[in-house]
Fold this sequence. Notes:
The structure holds two protein chains of two kinds. Chain A is α/β, with parallel strands linked by helices. Chain A folds into two domains: about 1-30; about 35-175, Rossmann fold. Chain A has six helices and ten strands, in the order H-H-E-E-H-E-E-E-H-E-E-E-H-E-H-E. In chain A, the strands form two sheets. In chain A, strands 3-4-2-5-6-7-8-10 form an eight-stranded mixed sheet. In chain A, a hairpin with a 2-residue loop joins strand 7 (about 140-145) and strand 8 (about 150-155). In chain A, about 40% of the residues are buried. By secondary structure, chain B is mainly β. Chain B has one domain (about 50-675): TonB-dependent receptor, beta-barrel domain (Maltoporin, Chain A). Chain B contains seven helices and 39 strands. Chain B has a 22-stranded antiparallel beta barrel. In chain B, a hairpin with a 2-residue loop joins strand 29 and strand 30. The radius of gyration of chain B is 26 Å and the shape is globular. At the A-B interface, helix 1, helix 2, helix 3, helix 4 and strand 8 of A face helix 1, helix 2 and strand 16 of B.
Amino acid sequence: MLPKPAIFKASGLALLMLVAGFENCLAQATIDEENLVAALSLNIVRFTTWPEPHSSPFNLCVYGDNVTKEAFNSLEAKPLGSRNIHVVILDRLIGLERCQALYINDIKPNLLSQVFNELKNKPILTLGYTESFAENGGMIGLRKVNGKLTIDINLRVTNEAGILISSRLLSLANIVEQ
Amino acid sequence: MSKLHTLLTTLLLSAGAVSISHAEDDDNINNLSIEDLLNVEVTSVSKKAQSLNDAAAAIFVISQEDIKRSGATSIPEALRLAPGLDVARINANQWAISARGFNSRVAHNLQVLIDGRSVYNRSFAGVDWENQDVVLEDIDRIEVIRGPGATMWGANAVNGVINIITKTARETLGGLVTAGGGNFEQGFGSFRYGSQINAETSARAYVKGFNRGGNLIQPEITGYDIQNAPQSDHWDKQQGGFRLDSKLNNRDELTFQGDVYSSSAALSSMIPDFNTLSDNVLTNATHTLGGNLLGRFQRTLSTTSEFKVQLYYDSYDRYMGIFKDARDTLDLDIQHRFLWLQNHEIIWGANYKYGHDHIVGTRGARSFNMNPARVNDQLASVFIQDEMSMFDDKLKFSLGSKLEHNDYSGFEGQPSAHLVWAPVNNQRIWGGVSRAVRTPSRIEKGIDYLGWIVPAQSRLNPTDFPYVSKWQGNPSFAAENVITYEIGYRTSVIKNLSFDISGFYSKYRGLNSYLPLGANLGTDSSYIIENLLMTNREQAHSYGLEVASVWQMLKWWRWDMNHSWYHDQHASKINYASSPHHRSSIRGLINVTSNLDFDVWWRYVGQANADSAFGYISIPSYFAMDLRTAWRPSKNLELSVTGQNLLQNKHLEYVSDSVFLPAAIVRGVYGKISLTF
Lengths: 178, 677
C-alpha cells in the first residue's frame, strides 16, 4: 500500500490528467463548424473583386441563428484591403442593397429562392452553408465532405453580377454548372 | 486539505487555460490560409448546446437525431424527450399524453398536427395516439410548444401544441429498409423509397408494420374480483403512404401526401353483467381503418411574404368493443404572412372545418350510447397576429387573436400578447398572456352510459345494494377556458452549455365535472343507478416550472437534461386525477467512435393519482432506464440494440379513468437493422 502523501500525489496527478484531457477536448470543440465557416467566408471575400469600388466600410450581412451570428461577429473590423469589415446582422431579409456580401443560414428553401431572385444581376456576393446552395442559384456554397469544408462556386451567377473570383480561389473550388 | 487544494488549483488553472484557448482559437482560425482552412477537420458538435430559439413561447424541438438515439419506436414514446409533457403508456396500444397536467386517455388540452393536419378528434376531444404514425426516419422534427397556442392553432390548443413535421420528398431520396424485433417489440419493419421524378418534382412512398404486446394486465389493482381476467394487450398495425413535392415555378410549390392504415388491438374493458350484478372483463379485438389525403399550395411572394392554401380529408372507422364510431373531416386552411411598414410582421389566416361522425353502442340500451348517434359539425375561424420589432430588432412584441365559431359552444375569442427580448446574442427573455378554450366533445353533449357495477359491501361501496353510475351528456355543456401567464429565459452564455427555463400560472374556468342528479332503482330493483350529469362547474389553477439543458461535455459526449415541476389545485375538494409533481429526464449521447454510438436515458416520474372505475388510485413514482448501442459497419448500414425500461420487470404508468383495465409496462429489448440505398 502506498503511503498517504503518495496517494494524494497520485490521485492529484490522475485528476490533473483527467481535467487536462477534458480541457483539451473542450479546446478542440471550439474550432467548430460555424467559426470555420466564418473564417472561410472572410478569406473568400478577400479573394473577390467587385465591379465598382465601395465606400468604406465593407458591409458583410449575416442572416441566421444565434450561433451563426456569434461566429460572424468575430469578423467585425477585420481589415479587407484598405477598408474594414462591418458585420451587419439581419433579422429580416430586407434592405439587402446595403450588403456587399450576404451570408445566409437557417432559411426555408422557398425564401432562399426569393433572395436569389431579388439579388439577380446585383453585385452582392451570396454565401451559404445549406444543401445545394450554389446549384440553386447562390454564388458560393460551402459544404461538408468527409469532415472537411469544400467550396462550390456558381460562375454563371457571379459573372452575371460582374463579380470576379480570383484564380487561387477558383483552383480550390468546385465549379457548379446550373 | 492538500487534496482539496490540488483540486481547486487544478480547476482554476484549467478554467484559465480554457478561456485563453478560446481567445487564441478565434485569432488563430482567422489567421489561417484558405488552403489550411479547407484542411481543418470540422466539428459540428457544439451547435445543439449553443443555439437558442427566438420564440416567445415555451418551445422544445425534438430532432431526427434525438428520435433515433432515444430508441423510440413510436411518436408517443419519442414525446418522452420533451419537458412539460406527461406521457403515460396505458398498455401496448394506448397512451395518455398531455402538456402541463390534466392527463387522460383523451387529454382534451393538447392540439396535435402532423404536417399541418390536425389529429385532434373532435368527437371525443382528444388525440387517439394509437392511430398516429409515420416512418420515424422521415420525421424532420417535432416541435413541442407548451402553453396556450390558440391564437395561431385554434381551439383546444389549451396547454400545448405538438407539430410533427416530416421531411420533404426532396430530402428522402433513395431507399430505406428497417427491420427488427424483440420481446415486447415483437416485430417491426418499414420500407420507403424516394425518387426524383424530374428536376422540379420528387416523391416518396412507404409501407410499415409492427406487432407489439406482452404487457401485464393488472386486474388485482381493481380491488375486487373480476371474472375472466384477460391475458393480452397485443397490437398490430399496417400502414402505407406517400408524399409528393413539386416546384411549379420559382415561387410556387405544391405538396400532396396521404396515408392509409389498418390496425387490430386487444382491449380489455369491464362490462356490467346485470344478471349476476358483477363485472365481467371483455377482451375485444378492436379494429381501426383510417386514412387521410392532404394538398398544400404555397406561393412565396417575396423574401418576407408567403401565402398558403391547404385542404385535407381525414377519415377513420373503428370498432372499440363497447362502441363503434366513424368520423370524416374536411378542412380548408389559408394563411398569409407579410411585412408591413418595415417592422410589423403580420400573419393572418382563416379556417373552415366540416365534420361528420357516427357513434353507436354495441351492447344495447344498458351500456354506451350517444345522443344523437350522428352529427354534422362545422367550425369556422379567422385570426390575425402582428409581431412588432423594436429597438434594433432586440425586442419583439406580438399581439393577436383568433375568433372562432363552432357548433358546440358558439363564438370564442382567443387573444394573446407575447414579448421576447434578446439583450445580447446568447440570451433571450420572454413572457406572455393568452386565453384559450377547449370546445365540448360529443361525450359531454350527448353521452348516455351505464358504466360498471360496483358490488355491494365492497371497498368502494359499503352498502347492501350494488350500484352503477349512469353518465348523461348535457346539451348546454359550454367550452372550458383558460388564461395563462408565462415567463421564460434562455441562455448559452457558457460555452457548450445551454439553459432554457420557463414558468407558468394558469387559471381554468368551466372545467368538466359531474353533477349528481340523485339515485333511482334499476329495472328489477336489485341495484341502484347513480345519475351523473356533465357540467362546467369546476375551476382550477395550476403552476409550474420547466428546465431544459444541453451540455456538450466532451466533443464526443453530450448530455440532454430536463426537469418539470407541476402543481394544480381544484376549487372543489373532490379527488381529481392528478399529474406527477416531478418529472426528470437525463440522456447521455456518447459517440464512442464515428461508427459506434452508445446512449443512456434515465427518467423519473413522480407519483400520480387516477380517478378511475376502481376508485381513487395512487400510481407509484418510478425510475426507468433505456440503453441503446448502434454500430455502423458501413455508411449505409446500421445495427442497433435497445433495452427499454430496464430497471424493473414491470411498472404502472396509468390507470384509465374509464372501464379499460390497467396494464403494467414490461422491460423490453429489441434489435434493429437499418439499411439505406
